[in-house]
Amino acid sequence: MICWSGSRKPLHVWPETAILSRTIGCCVAGFPLQKWLPMRLPESAFALVLCLGTSVVCAADWPQWRGPFFNGATDEVGLPTQFSRTENVAWSADLSGAAASTPIVSQDHVFLSGIDAARDTLLAQCFDRHSGRLLWQHDVARGIQKDDRSNYASSSPVTDGKLVVFFFGSGQLACYDLAGKSLWARDLRDDYGEFAFLWTFSSSPLLLREKLFVQVLQRDEAVEGRGLQGRENESYLLALDPPTGRTLWRHVRPSEAVAESREAFTTPVPCGASGHEQLLVAGGDALSAHDPDTGKELWRWGNWNPQRIGHWRLVTSPVAGSGVALVCGPKGEPVYAVKTNGAGALDDRILAWTSDGAREVSSDVPTPAYYDGDFFVLSDVRRQLSRVESTTGKVKWTKSTPGRTKYEASPLAADGKIYVVNFDGQVAIFRADNGELVNVVAMDEPGEGEKVRASVIAAHGQLFIRTTRKLYCVGKN
Fold it and tell me: How many of the other CB atoms lie within 10 Å of CB of 181?
């Protein structure tokens, strides 16, 4: 369904909405209000609903990893296409180490999970959105990595406009108010055991309907000494009370996958179908939908690995739109569009379409974006960006990505453009309508072993770009 923001032209398409709605400038409890507000309501009714919200996040914010609509898109307009490391930059802030976490923005605050490489310390950071000044910083834990491919600061923080939660791949959860006061902290390893992953675990938290969701999809057996010894490691979806960190429920999620294919680096995302919210969870050779109130599994589909290949870990998160949820098979396998109105164990009749992964549409690492009624699939393996019709899978255009290195950061879709960034910190900007390459901007010169993996995000008419050494705010204040 098409949503408007004030008098703006229709740009954003909210997935699964049952009635025509429009954006009115904010989200309540982390969920966009256009999901709930029908066009036939008078303007006074919109104001009334605003007053009823217990936590409010401006629509111009980017409150979590995949943005205000959970799909890599925003209805921001006037975003810059001409800039460099010195031109059209509102500010830049020095960083004390490279990490893959994406910045998030709430009102006047920019939050970032980071590292201090010299001190081997994980950081929770807050910058002033107008000046880039470091407002506060907390040391969360010692020890930043266990392998040379990534580090524990790969998960993005999340905020509801009142508090902000940081989650790290070593298991630490840390919650602060916007002024930086510590509200609570937990280490999931103390409660449920060390994570059983071959490589460094990463999954970003989700705030929705006054609950904090965290997922851990891991091996059932310990791997290289990591995980519980002598007993099964359970994969689970966890719901916490945001103000206190108290566990509300824990749903154990079974899997028929084997070995590394049980591991997922995905993030749960919400969608609505037939007037009911669902949490989509991808990994362990399956896509499942869950009740946000209880964690109960509503439906499951998973036929992309019928031979139970053991090294097909999943990195791309699901994304919903137009009545389907995309799940990208790993290692260059196809993209599958799963109808979200199913129940129970589902077979392939629930598929709306499947891409021809051997040709062009696939993704091993970047999560696709949903924008203007279509999916934008960035293939790190084939080094291509494709616009795909959401209901049929028809490829409207495919363009090669510029530069010599891979694009693993997920795409940003906004203002009629698609922004992607590669390992070298080159930001490529494409037109959403026809795929024309608008500009390529070199925003970094990575050192030995350093890579840019954080997505470009947009908020308040500006771009926020994390490189290996700096955080840039691009555009006028």
Answer: 10
Determine which helix (DSSP H) or strand (DSSP E) holds 353, and give its type and residue range: strand 351-354
Contact between 397 and 430 (Cβ < 8 Å): no
417 within 8 A of 439, measured Cβ to Cβ: no
Q: Which amino acid is at 75?
A: D
| Token pair listed for 261 | 């294919």
Residues 6 or more apart whose CB falls under 8 angstroms from that of 407 comprise: 366, 378, 380, 383, 401, 420, 421, 422, 423, 428
C-alpha distances out from residue 312 to 335, 379, 410, Å? 14, 16, 19
What pLDDT, in 10s, does the model give residues 141-166? 999 988 877 899 999 999 999 999 99
Across the range 191-206, mean pLDDT stands at 95
Cβ atoms within 10 Å of 294's Cβ, excluding its own: 11
- What integer pLDDT is reported at residue 275 of this predicted model? 58
State whether residue 321 is helix, strand or coil.
strand
pLDDT at 149: 79
User: Strand 344-345 relative to strand 297-301: parallel, antiparallel, unpaired?
Assistant: parallel
* pTM for this entry: 0.89
3-state DSSP call for residue 260? helix
Give strand pairing partners of 5: 23
**pLDDT beyond 60 at 8:** no
Among candidates 316, 330, 328, 322, which has minimal Cα distance to 352?
Answer: 322
The distance from CA 179 to its chain's CA centroid, rounded to whole angstroms, is: 24
Which helix (H) or strand (E) segment holds residue 191: the answer is helix 188-192
Cβ neighbour number for residue 40 with a 10 Å cutoff? 8
441-448 long-range contacts, CB within 8 A, separation 24+: 441/83, 441/84, 442/84, 442/85, 443/84, 443/85, 443/467, 443/472, 444/468, 444/469, 444/470, 446/98
CA distance 172 to 44: 43
Q: How distant, in Å, are the alpha carbons of 57, 109, 442 from that of 54?
A: 10, 19, 42
CA 163, chain centre distance (Å)? 18
**Across residues 410-430, what is the average pLDDT?**
98
245-261 average pLDDT score: 97
Rounded Cα distance, 303 and 134, in Å: 47
